[in-house]
Amino acid sequence: MTKYDKLVTNAAGRVVPTIINGEEHIPFMGVGKYKPGGRKYGPKIASCADYPEDGNKVVPGLKEALVRSGLKDGMTISTHHHFRNGDLMANQVFDIAKELGIKDLRWFPSASFPCQEHLVQYLEDGTINRIEGSMNGPLGRFASLGKMKGVGVLRSHGGRYQAIQDGEVKIDIAVIAAPTADAFGNANGVNGSAACGLLGFALGDSQYADKVIVVTYNLVPFPAIPWQIHGNYVDYVVEVDKVGLPEKIISGTTQITKSPDRLLIAEITAGFCEKAGLIYDGFSYQAGAGGTALSIGNYFGDILRKNNWKAAFIRAGSNKYPVEMLEEGIVSYILDGQTFDLEGVRSMRENSNHVATSPFTSYNYHGKGNFASLIDIVVLGATEVDVNFNANVVSHSDGYLLHGIGGWQNTLFGKTTIMPIPLFRDRIPVIRDEVTTLCAPGEMIDVIVTERGIAINPLRTDLIEKTKSSGLPIKTIQELKAEAEAICGIPEKPDLGDEIIAVVKWVDGTVIDSVRRVIK
Amino acid sequence: MTGEKAMVGNRGRGTKSDCYVELELKASGGIRLELKSKVKSLYGKAISKLAREIMSFFEVRDANLLIEDFGAVDFVLAARIEACVKKLINTDKEFLLPRLDTNAGSTERSAFRFSRLYLPGNSPKLMLNAGLHKPNGLILDLEDAVAPEKKHEARFVVRNALRNLDFYGAERMVRINQGEMGIEDLEYIVSQNANLILIPKSESADDVLAVDEAVRKLKAKNNSSQDIWLMPIIESAKGVINAYKIAAASKNISSVAIGLEDYTADLGTQRTSEGNESFFARSMVVNAARAAGVQPIDSVFSDVSDMEALARNVRKSKRLGFDGMGCIHPRQIKVIHENFAPSAMEIEKAKRIFLAFKEARANGLGVVSLGTKMIDAPVVKRAVNAITVAVNIGVLDKDWEMQAESQV
pTM, whole model, 2 decimals? Predict the structure, then answer.
């Protein structure tokens, strides 16, 4: 099997393969242009007759569950990141696969984290053929150097659901880590001492995978309520001592920044939103996890209080800051995709206005609408943007894959997308002639806010008009780029090979860009 | 000097926008450059080119040069490499990059000096964005913020920063060292037209005059007539007693500051948040400065996390008669400006006085009155000051007069 074949230039001008890991893929055709046909993927029909009448699906150990699920060469195995850097599942699953001598697995995580560096050895020895999911830290470095056997596929959270639903990725075995479950397989993330919030990322896997294994350390009598995962989808339940480390869902990025430079960017961003009239009684916004995004939320809170307004909802990534706003009464709902700290978990458990969502409700592009497009203000980061407002979130300017897409591509569909980013980081300018990896077409990005000025996408004439005499430091994106280069110098192009080591999917499953191998 | 090795700069965890340089002179073999850089794939060629240019500028032909770079910009790389060369070679030559146009000008003696932000002279990572926080002045500190063994290399960073760092409109200030070392510092600073020099631990008029004279000589040597203002800092009991003599020592003095950490130590007491222990000294400095016709400037407030306490401190400082204070964190700047600035009520009053004064003059009246009150010249002067300040910090539109007329 060739890793990839039949290169074409897609609608964004990027050269991408249409055969990837032996399967056919569609090149990016433009935002909203690709119309899917056919029907959704149908998982096998199960019968109650094949499952224990007493509802007890507990089997002794994960290995037993994997063996009974028919684990064999070439299968697709999914795990999830609701424990973020405290995940214990992925490493165990592939330790077992290795022990059983299984080869060529496709790992289909909802995201990977540095705690999974352990898997590099299995990528090397062929236990794992490739990762289709985010590649962070050491895994990204491994893939970037062209060492992965298959071609990586990067998808957004919504794109992952879409790929499962459309049958583009058929999951053989889904392993779902659950802080609480019953023997029937009902499971949730809000209860138990390892509570991590919600299990939304595993929803699609439970619905469409051939075999579903729920792993828990907190086995409660039927019914485990709320049943975020329905036992009716579940084949086996495994009880373990430790299912994940909830304290590790708190990453370093979930504190409000103390950096004066980032606070300045946050302040300018909030000032822009206020003066452009984007904040009003009943508005909504996407709360990101980064320190800058969190402090922007803080400033939004100040603006709401000052005007005696109330936000309709916050789309989150929640942690203590949005929770405080909910409890203070300046926001009506948190629609939460993942919890970033234990305050978020507590709030979700106790407060019915703190709602667990899934990539299906919030992000799936192949549905009858999703609520990403209802959000007024979306605040996102980026590793690079270019003079045409195209943005990159997966690789650095040196070409290394270092971040996942997450919900980033999906939330671009909000009414106004703002990227508050430093104009340069350790000499590396953020605005380039052309992004190293294209993750979002420029038409989706409305405003770039830096410490040295604000650039508004020329397509947003309304925003340009509204902020014309606001006193805000509005500049063109070319002016900002020139300003950075006056300080940092003009960067060289990184040394990248022709070989494609991964592709980036757009939200509709089409291929928007290729990631090239880094020459060390 | 062959075989000698010099080391300059910073490395290790948390190093950013900086570099570490090692130079070892050799008898032969040309320049062997080893570059380790986190931005190598984007700036490796540019860094190598600059390093070789500096080697050839100082006529270093055979040497091992190691650069560990953490995203340093050119003026920092150049400062580090030059400092390294000068540890091994005696030369008067200076490697200078083209100066930014914005760093050519001088400032007014009476410029606003509400806030002045201290930056350690040997820490380039804090410099690049400092001006964006809009302090009235940025101080590149060669004194307390630089360790004794780093004094030499810091001078090159400060010199280059005065040329190549964008101060975004802030006054370009340097705090030199005490005594002889401070006089040596001046050679790196006066040639770059720093706007203002802070003289630490000034205890007598002679302390200030020594600096004043050295600056004069260096300016004459450079054929420069640009103003360089002096701000003596009084930090001891003796300095407080001599405050007026210090403040009046030279026409180049624009302001006199007080440094309370050292002063309270000298008194054998400690700084408290009420500040009773420094009341005398602060009042003395205010009186001395006013008597000499220069700006009295207050000490820094060192608790960077407590903005409420800072605000109270600033308001107290303003009531005592100070025109500004130092700061050690960018987040303090806004609080200082807001609290030194005239209040909304003061601005309204100042506007009324100013308009009444104008109207009286237009009508040829010698006496100005507002309501039943007579307004004399100092009151008008204070009103004009308040308005200028308000416009300057952006709480009053510069076209307020036109708007006031159109409302009538």
Answer: 0.91
